[in-house]
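pasting for ref
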Amino acid sequence: MHVATTIRNFLAKNYLISLLVLWSTLISASVTSNLYQNHRDTVAKAKIEARTIFRHNIAYRKWSTMHGGIYTKITEKNKDNPHLLYNIAGQQNEVAFEIIDPSQVTRQAYEVLHNQAPNLAAISHTVSLDHQRTADPYDQPDEWEANGLRTLEAGELEETSTITTINNAPYLRLLMPYIVDRGCFTCHGHEFTIGNVRGGMSVAVPMQPYYETAVQTERTTIITHILLWFLGCVAIIKFSNAFKRYRSTIMESEKKFRIVSEFAYNIEYWLGKDQRLIFISPSCQELTGYTPNELISNPEMLELMIYPEDRYAYRLLITNDDSHSFTTPPLRITTKNGQERWVTHTVTPIYADGEYLGRRGSCVDVTEQKKLEKQLAQSKQLECLGQFAGGIAHDFNNVLGSINTFAHLLREEIKDTNKDAEEYIKYIKIATKLGKNLTSNLLSFGKNQLIETKKTSLRKIITDISDILKSLVDESFHYTFNLTEDDLEITADPHQLEQILINLCTNARDAMPGGGDITISTRNLLLNTPFEGSLETVPQDHYMVLEVKDSGHGIKPENIKKICEPFFTTKSSSKGTGLGLSIIFNIVKQHKAFMNVESTVNQGTTFSIFMKTNGHHFLSDSPHQDLSDTPPLSSPPDKENTPLPMAAAKLPSHSKTVLVADDDELIRSALQIYLEHLGYQVLLAENGKTAIRSFLDSQDSIDLVILDVIMPHRNGREVYDIIRKNNKLTPVLFVSGDTGHILSDDMIRNEQLNFLQKPIDFETFSTTIARLTGKV
């Protein structure tokens, strides 16, 4: 069936070639048939001549027998005739006569004929299988004649023939039997039986004259067929061109109607005077899943597939008596396979010569348009929310920075005097850390957060943040830390990875309302081939892998691909915004890393982060500790083992001067107190313009400039550029919670700018300013 269809399609597309091949085949078959028939006719004509020669021989044999034989003078050729009946002596001339046997007559006659025309004369002689035992002058048969005589005597054939070569010339040989009749008794007496075969006559007719005539006939046949083939090809080509034009016209017309029917407005349909569906285009099946026959046989389906709350608009449309076209707003329909799609209906009354014929309807699929509208609205929402988030993060970071600074200073003031107060301060610092994570989420969402990468390790990051992770959950949750000893170095922003850990652990907590297990693992992975993950493909490379596993309700397979989309969430509106995993994925991409998720419903979920490593082991200053055994936060800290960043960084007083420019008064005051506590002299500026004036007035005595990025009158970048024009040596440190696109990662990296993210980590801050001012 498939082969027949393929052949039919090929012939339809290549009908000109097909017709030419068919015509050529017919002409070739005709030529072959004619040439074959001509050859058969040539042989048949030669056989007719051979039979005629045989019959002539039989005729004059019978004539000779009828008259009692032929008598002739005795010569060298005719003497000692064994069948001599009479010997007549001439009375006057003394001439002697004797009878001539018919076989001798045949032989002698054909000798004369052969002498006259050696190449054209037939050859004839009598042969017999009993030529040695009979007195008749029969010739000895050759092999072919002997076989033929046996066949003839057996009565199987009346004659036998063949084409052969005699003296290098083609001949037709024919062998026919001598059948004994009553006349034979005249010479032979009664030694034979009437009807028996008594030898036969072998006749050889030259074929050359017939072949020459046949060649002329063949030449005429071939030329005629060539001419006929040529004329036929010309006719076929002309017909094909005409047919092609005709077919093109038909196809163009059909194409126009098909396009109008199948593609214009997606679906075209016609409602009769009685509102019954008369026609609907085949394109309805692609949109609705229903075939035209299904809708025509059940015309109510056209309305029933519309959502109930949208049907009223459709009914108004098809019952409106106005002669103008009307279009519905987008309506929702349910397709045959249960999908939701959006369509618009346009209905126009049809009149012909003033007679109402019905309504022409057009149904257009606007599902993609609705999706784009939704995406556009979401994009605008994201843009507005991002700008809003960036602004909030900037102000909130300033507040957190102030709280963190004063908490740090307060801890130094009450150190070793009030254990409960120290514990409370620790909780304050954890709260500021969580607050920093929140602002980091906002900045990541607003795309304003810069990453400060350095060489670190997953073990160090997890160890540093373990207390905060434990503070996220209550006693119904159990943490397990499986951190590899093969701790390789990675290049990353530790605060951003801490943010990933906090978000993943928060999601794990929310996935287990009744409590459960959270396992944080690291491992060393060398991928020799790409790994096809559920979210993306992880290329071959050397990685350190961070895994966070929970024993929660899991993620449905159909939601795996959507979990990193903004605002996608399976939580209730009071428990999630759908931004957490989107933020995590953005951070992963900022680090040129990869993320994968594996989940089984009602068993749990594992998130994996693949961070590239250079293969070097990370050298940590602190010994490894078993995080699973660390005391809960309610226990008082071990003062002897807990380093105090402020105390470690405090230096003796020197005459170094630091200019601090920040538009937030709390930040300025906090930094002033902290820097003075470290032994620095501090100049303050509340905006960019004041900072420029203060630096130009005292640049010879200023050893370090600390700049906020976003400030009124002149931002931090503008202040930096003016400082560099006047002084290229004074170090500058940018400190900001939100760069507002004023500084980028590439800018900081390429220009080797010094930058710290708010809220400030005071150990890093004190070390950095000591390095920049040369107090180390």
